[in-house]
Amino acid sequence: MTFTLEELRSAHRTVQQHVPPTPQYAWPLLADALGREVWVKHENHTPTGAFKVRGGITYLDALSRRGQLPGRLITATRGNHGQSIPFAARHYGVPVTVLVPEGNAREKNAAIRGWGADLEVIGRDFDAAREEAERRAAAGQGELVPSFHDDLILGVATYGLELMFGVPDLEAIYVPIGMGSGICSLIRVRDLLGLDTDIVGVVNERADAMAQSVEQGRIVTTATADTFADGIATRVPHPAAFKEIKRGAARIVRVSDEEIADAMRLLYRTTHNVAEGAGAAACAAAAQERCGDRIAVVLTGGNIDASMFANILDNT
Asked: 3-class DSSP state for residue 18?
């Protein structure tokens, strides 16, 4: 999981052909609420409403440059990764099968289909859908696109490049951990730029396999990942992500569903932006810790069913 600064800049040029740089704002009302300067990196402002689209673009670009575009791609997702791959693949005419777990967000499913993917509902959670995608790929039903891969991380890292160049001297950046591409990309960009910014990972207290793994120094899986924040509802840490997070993250913060919901309301009230559960997790952790005078939180996505978001706003 290594790339050079020049490779990152080249990837940024590729991503910019499809996704303009997303804004980063220091909202005054959010600063008042958290008691310090807080910058929000608005990855909810991409064409798919989440940061994952950057990785999809670089992944397909790499396949194309290597002359390895397959007849079909297959992947598993809770939503945002599942939008990023068909978004990028449509530019190359490659069909995509996306497997999602039972009970997945209806509007995320609709968006996945909207980008042209063939969507199927498989398994009780993300990891069950992932295992089925791996089985089908092994059976020759498509080339597997994993949720964690060097080419995906390179693309995702372009938002870190924008943020760290655009807002210098950040003491800490808070980022949610799903499969780990977001936090690993930030660690890599921080190191490439020679900064001392703390990269702080955020997990849900009921989906904390990565936090347990880092604390125990070994991969720990959990039986469930019971949180409405579907983007961080993972039970099985990726070994490469675990290694990088253990090496380069300052710490991992656990947040509850209640704290995430509070952060979603706070972000809407102070910035008028919609954050999905995972997208608000970083803000929830920053509110919990209340340390550092100049920090950033990554609003990784805003894809949440309207009915769920309305219910969260109503339950103040």
From this structure: coil
CATH number for 53-144: choose from 3.40.50.1100, 2.60.40.1080, 6.10.140.1670, 3.10.580.10: 3.40.50.1100
Count the residues in the chain: 316
Residue whose tokens read 């909207």: 114
CA nearest neighbour of 103 among 81, 130, 74, 123: 123
Residue type, 120: E
Least Cα distance to 267 among 50, 69, 60, 25 occurs for: 25
Q: What are phi and psi of 277, to 5 degrees?
A: -55, -50
Pairing state of beta strands 24-26 and 37-42?
antiparallel
CA nearest neighbour of 92 among 70, 121, 117, 122? 70
Alpha-carbon distance of 123 to 218, in angstroms, equals 26
User: CA nearest 185: which of 211, 163, 209, 207?
Assistant: 163
Residue 36, both tokens: 């310090």
Task: Report the greatest alpha carbon distance in the chain.
Answer: 55
Q: Between 181-192 and 150-166, two packed helices, what is the crossing angle to 10 degrees?
A: 60
Pairing, β 294-299 against β 172-176: parallel
Per-residue model confidence (pLDDT) at position 2: 85
Q: Quick one: CATH architecture of 5-51+150-314?
A: 3-Layer(aba) Sandwich (3.40)
Residue 1: pLDDT over 70:
no
Residue 74, strand partner residues: 97, 144
What does DSSP assign to residue 217? T
**What confidence score (pLDDT) does residue 79 get?**
85
Instruction: Please say whether the beta carbons of 155 and 11 come within 8 A.
Output: yes
* Sign of torsion over alpha carbons 264, 265, 270, 271: positive
Label residue 264 by pLDDT band (50, 70, 90).
very high
For residue 23, give both structure tokens: 């804004």
